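Let us walk through a complete example step by step. Step one is to write down the protein sequence. Step two is to encode the small molecule, adenosine-5'-triphosphate, as a SMILES string so that its atoms and bonds are unambiguous. Step three, shown after the inputs, is the structure prediction itself.
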Amino acid sequence: MTLVTKIIDTAEEMMDLGGKIARKVVPPFCIHLTGQIGAGKTTFARGFLKAIGINGPVKSPTFTLVETYSRGGIKVNHLDLFRIDSSRELEFIGFDDYLDSKSILLIEWPESVSEGLPEPDLTIKIEVEEFSRRIQIDKNVVE
Ligand SMILES: Nc1ncnc2c1ncn2[C@@H]1O[C@H](COP(=O)(O)OP(=O)(O)OP(=O)(O)O)[C@@H](O)[C@H]1O
Ligand SMILES: [Mg+2]
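Step three: the predicted structure of the complex.
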């Protein structure tokens, strides 16, 4: 796999990237989104969901841990594991149903748990720069 770096200047561009990737992937597919608080992980997810036809507001799963969406036979589970401390905790709250599903998984803060998550088919690494975001992503999915 070859990684490419992309500079994303605005939230709109981040949503466009999410949309572009949404149009390329089919379930089951697991995306890990990494980057500090406010990096743009949820913004990416909003663009992704918009592209599959979710037009209403997309709420950050910060407190609910998971938000599930369904459109045209495609199910997307959007997770935020920031508040999860271990794989045991993940098991305890019954996440198997979400993780084993044939859906598309968008996982924020996958690094919160060291094991128990599906291997990512794609990882989007976001670094915050002074006026933009620097993304590292598999070349094949953006070209
Ligand atoms: N280039 C950019 N890409 C993405 N978001 C940007 C950019 N520039 C500014 N923003 C703003 O930064 C914020 C990113 O917030 P977002 O909720 O997407 O972050 P997050 O990575 O999901 O954070 P958290 O870890 O708290 O869930 C939004 O308010 C967005 O409008
Ligand atoms: Mg978020």
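Step four is interpretation. Residues 63 and 93 are 13 Å apart (CA to CA).
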